[in-house]
Amino acid sequence: MVSGPGLKKVDSHAAIHEAALNEARELNRILDHLLKDGKMDKALEIAHITIEHWETRTLRHADAEEKGLYKELVEENPELKDAVVALIRDHDTMRYLVSEIKETIESNTLNDEVLQQFHALVHVDQYHNLEEEKILPEH
After folding, report:
1. What is Dmax (Cα atoms) for the chain?
2. Count of domains observed in the chain
3. Model-level pTM greater than 0.70?
4. Is residue 12 within 8 Å of 82, Cβ to Cβ?
5. Residue numbers of the domain that contains 34
6. Mean pLDDT per segment of 10 residues, for the chain of length 139 residues?
């Protein structure tokens, strides 16, 4: 699978990352307010929307990177193999967190721990994006 041209350019790739992260941060902010206000039904709805966001935006993007971009980068520069392995591990960490949160909220359980896991996702993704952008071509 050949990755799209935008994935191989640091600026456009960074823009994709930043848009998804900003959406995730905003969803976390909304969820936090709803939990503090005790609006559990609405908070649970937002938690499900947030899971959908991570699955359809970030994790789908991660899948595309693993199937195309990362393979291409390593083929072009084998010295990037360890960095790519670390990036895939970040994706796996995000998949694990999403799975854990999803399992919790499917039983209609929502608490501060879930919110903290959503915050952890943002932090892992933010660090991941910084590391990934270091190995992308500048142009």
Report:
1. 53
2. 1
3. yes
4. no
5. 5-135
6. 53 86 98 96 97 97 94 95 98 98 93 96 97 81
